[in-house]
Write a structure and sequence with these properties.
The complex is a heterodimer.
Chain A: E1 2-12, E2 15-25, H1 31-41, E3 61-64, E4 67-70, E5 84-87, E6 94-96, E7 99-100, H2 103-110, H3 129-136, H4 146-150, H5 152-155, H6 167-177, H7 187-192, H8 204-208, H9 215-232, H10 234-242, H11 250-254
Parallel strand pairs in A: 1-5
Antiparallel strand pairs in A: 1-2, 3-4, 3-5, 6-7
Helix pairs in contact in A: 6-9, 9-10
Chain B: H1 31-53, E1 58-59, E2 65-66, H2 98-101, H3 103-110, H4 113-122, H5 153-173, E3 176-177, E4 181-182, H6 186-203, H7 206-214, H8 223-237, H9 239-261
Antiparallel strand pairs in B: 1-2, 3-4
Helix pairs in contact in B: 1-4, 1-9, 3-5, 5-6, 6-9, 7-8
The chains are: A alpha+beta, B mainly alpha.
Chain lengths: 259, 271
């Protein structure tokens, strides 16, 4: 057991400052345990979100020593010596202390055109194991929104929130675009309105993902390549013409109804 | 303050929490950009110098070794024996043949997804590291010229494959020792290693993975493409390693051949 200084951001939309709390760190504790002890002893009004304490709900995402991490999965004994800095996620507006308003993400979720399967065949839909496995990785997402938080496209450029869905939703788009039963074509939508071109693949989303989803390699870059197929590749364009395949415009894709 | 278009009310420009500083990171996040800048700058300086040298890129006496910076040698100014192609572009004697071809491997690496990550971070500081502020006030990513041209990566990939075939041919030629017959020298191993690393770099490329099978919606309906995709996917996971290894080794290959061609060292025969 040793004493540790927790430097926690306290404040709301009207402003804030760091406050230091010196607490005793016990063996095996995670940052969230120490935050709870501060609530129980020094600052009962300290606001933070938490739920499962098992790294599966994504509620307790914050920035620990400047990096987005889940407080419940960050062991105190793995942090370097010295004060531990804890701040709310920078990309989203603050509500209070460590709690932010992440509704930007819910707005982006609403914009995702749903899966649009073909009419049901007489013997029903069939999915093969290799196609099921492909999207499995993307469904591990716990929506902690740390990938959105660390993405510099919106972290450092607030205006881009109007044009950019963010890594969490590129995973969703990738999952749908790789779904064998989906007939929607979202490629123009992803390029024109979801801002895939803003991503410069610096892989920070992959670095912070607590579920270790290869966001950049398995979702964003495959989406970029699909956009190249649809928009920038004359050979692919010729192939579509010969096979008389058409793609949906961004507008058409955006209004596809859920089945 | 602008509302994002959806039924969920979102306000842009809300007050953010935390101090207004570039980063609160306490680790040595700057090490990676410094290493990247050092290696890439050294490579650019060396390769530019080598491309303008226009000499010591071919060993034709007792050996058949050509530098990857000068292969295929397509200029009339090529050293005797360096070109195996019937197609030669007329150039003045002072013109370096490397200048005709280097745009293709350069373009392949410049538009490569891994190198983009590296140089956007290290040179452009956009961002220099995760959770460290972008150095630029505004940002449009790869949506406008010139960066929208990054979408041409797959064409450079195709060109890269052609170069790999030619450099593999060079490696096979390196087993031939004019006047002495067949043999293996250090130079042979250098060219074989160089060609192998370039193949690994190309096959692990994200565009290659997409073209092999990543672009299909259903693997079940395209079993052969699924097999190709499964073959290149583990390579793709090592793309960073192959990118650095092939970059460094292509420069070392040029150094070795340059030293042999200038007479500074002898290409040792192994068997």
């Amino acid at each position: 057991m040793s004493d540790v200084t927790m430097r926690v951001w306290r404040g709301d939309a009207n402003g804030g400052q760091f406050e230091d709390y010196t607490v005793t760190q016990q063996e095996g504790e995670v940052v969230l345990d120490v935050i709870h002890r501060i609530q129980a002893t020094d600052a009962p009004d300290l606001a933070c979100r938490w739920n499962c304490k098992a790294g599966k709900c994504g509620s307790c995402a914050a920035e620990i020593n400047g990096k987005p991490r889940l407080m419940c999965m960050t062991r105190m004994d793995q942090l370097p010596e010295g004060p531990v800095t804890i701040t709310p996620m920078k990309t989203f507006p603050i509500i209070r202390d460590l709690v932010t308003d992440v509704s930007f993400n819910y707005a982006q979720a609403e914009k995702v055109p749903a899966l649009l399967p073909p009419p049901m065949p007489a013997d029903g839909y069939r999915m093969f194991q290799q196609d099921v496995e492909r999207g499995q990785e993307f469904r591990k997402c716990i929506e902690c929104f740390m990938c959105q938080d660390v993405c510099h496209v919106i972290r450092d450029h607030e205006d881009n929130k109007q044009y950019y869905a963010g890594p969490r939703f590129f995973i969703r788009y990738a999952e749908l675009e790789m779904h064998p039963l989906d007939t929607n074509d979202r490629r123009d939508l992803i390029r024109e309105e979801m801002g895939l071109g803003y991503c410069n693949i610096t892989k920070c989303c992959t670095e912070v993902c607590p579920e270790h989803i290869k966001i950049t390699d398995n979702a964003i870059i495959p989406l970029k390549e699909r956009v190249v197929d649809a928009q920038y590749d004359p050979v692919a364009w010729l192939g579509r013409k010969i096979r008389r395949k058409t793609k949906r415009s961004a507008e058409e894709a955006a209004v596809q109804p859920a089945p | 303050m602008t509302a994002v278009g959806s039924s969920t009310k979102v306000v842009l420009g809300g007050t953010r929490g935390g101090p207004d500083v570039a980063t609160l990171r306490q680790d040595r996040w700057w090490v990676q950009p410094v290493v990247t800048v050092s290696i890439l700058t050294a490579f650019v300086i060396y390769s530019t110098w080598a491309a303008f040298q226009n000499k010591n890129y071919y060993v034709g006496f007792d050996r058949d070794l050509i530098s990857p910076f000068y292969s295929p040698c397509l200029a009339t100014s090529c050293e005797a024996g360096a070109s195996n192609s019937g197609f030669l572009i007329h150039t003045p004697g002072w013109f370096s043949p490397a200048l005709l071809i280097l745009i293709f491997p350069l373009g392949f690496r410049l538009t490569c997804y891994y190198y983009r990550r590296s140089y956007y971070r290290a040179f452009w500081w956009s961002p220099p590291a995760c959770a460290v502020s972008d150095a630029h006030a505004s940002y449009s990513g790869e949506t406008k010229f010139p960066l929208i041209m990054q979408n041409l990566h797959r064409y450079f990939f195709y060109a890269g494959l052609v170069f790999n075939v030619l450099l593999t041919y060079d490696a096979i030629r390196a087993f031939r020792q004019p006047g002495l017959g067949f043999g293996v020298t250090v130079g042979t191993l250098v060219l074989v290693t160089n060609a192998t690393l370039l193949w690994l770099y190309s096959l692990s490329c994200h565009a290659c993975r997409h073209l092999c099978g990543g672009q299909v919606r259903s693997f079940a309906q395209h079993p052969w493409r699924h097999k190709f995709w499964k073959f290149v996917t583990p390579l793709n996971a090592k793309h960073m390693n192959f990118a650095w290894a092939s970059l460094v080794f292509v420069a070392l290959t040029d150094v070795y051949i340059r030293l042999v061609a200038s007479g500074a060292i002898t290409d040792y025969k192994l068997f």
